[in-house]
Amino acid sequence: MTATTWLTINKLKAKRDHLRAIMTPQKNAFLRDVRVKIPHTIRRGQKAILKCLYDIEDDTLYAVKWYKGRREFYRYTPSEEPPMQVFQFPGVRVDRSTSNETHLVLDSSTIATAGKYSCEVSADAPSFHTLIAAAELQVVELPHHQPLITGIRSRYHNGDILRGNCTSRHSKPAANLTWTVNNEEVQPSHVRHFKVHRDPKSEMQTSTIALHFLVNEHHFEKGKMKIRCIAQIGDVYYTTTEKIVLSAAYHHHHHNYHYQRYENDENEFNNVITTNKDYAADVNQYALQDRTLVGQGAGSSNNYISQVQELTAWSTAGNIDEANSCRTLLYLCIFYFLVTCFRLT
């Protein structure tokens, strides 16, 4: 290959590279990756912090604008003085002292504060690139009371049908209710959800859930079943109401055990400290009136003994008074007899 041919080839390559450079657009770094961070749910009266994040790259920021729905209520323009502008909007109160081009703080939120919020970011010349991102904000009114469990009895036999309701009143939105039995979620077939009731005046909502199932032995642990109703609203409200249900058969068996134990103790007392039949009858009558003292703990027997001793002292005192009365009557009879004989003589 001659030098002339080699030179020609290099010129052609240079011309090709030049054409490629002209035809290929330059990759400038523009505004990108605009995103918002808005809490999904807040309580009424709570502050809301809305964040608008972006990568400005080689651009210059022109303005950040916030919209609720389609209406602008906040604008931050760094090149202007003052840079912040706030436009009145129902339910939206901007905290000027803590808001800037990336953070927007809303004070004293109300139900009207809820809605769709959008952040629009614009770059300055020469690109004037604009991007927007949006998210929903929900404001909740929490219930003033815990969920209420109704219709569930305190005792059940095996084979009984357990039925009950749980109600969470006056919130917005309505609380999500679930049942657990012994800390395990109830099967869906045993649960019924009622339609949410809405108060036409206050717009508050009430939710109700029902529970029904056949009671079996496996529902009880040491004669007890723990039924719990859980009320939840988003991640800002979680509370429970619990009811303890007893097994009628289990507690009837243990009641009979304590009753028999009492009968044995009572017989032992009668054999040791009673010899007078009338006194023994008094002790038996007293014991029948106070069976609840037996089987209540280690101090119950001592309490019972002290009361029997008090009864013994009372009875003994009564016998002494009766003897004194008989002696006095005998003296009166003798005195009357002597007086009569004296008059006859």
TrEMBL record:
Residues 25-129 form the Ig-like domain. Signal peptide: none annotated. It holds the Pfam family C2-set_2. InterPro entries: CD80_C2-set (IPR013162), Ig-like_dom (IPR007110), Ig-like_dom_sf (IPR036179), Ig-like_fold (IPR013783), Ig_sub (IPR003599). It comes from the Eukaryota. It is found in: Membrane. It is a single-pass membrane protein. The keyword ATP-binding does not apply. Keywords: Disulfide bond, Membrane. PROSITE patterns: IG_LIKE. GO terms for biological process: motor neuron axon guidance. GO terms for cellular component: membrane. This is Ig-like domain-containing protein. The lineage of its organism: Eukaryota, Metazoa, Ecdysozoa, Arthropoda, Hexapoda.
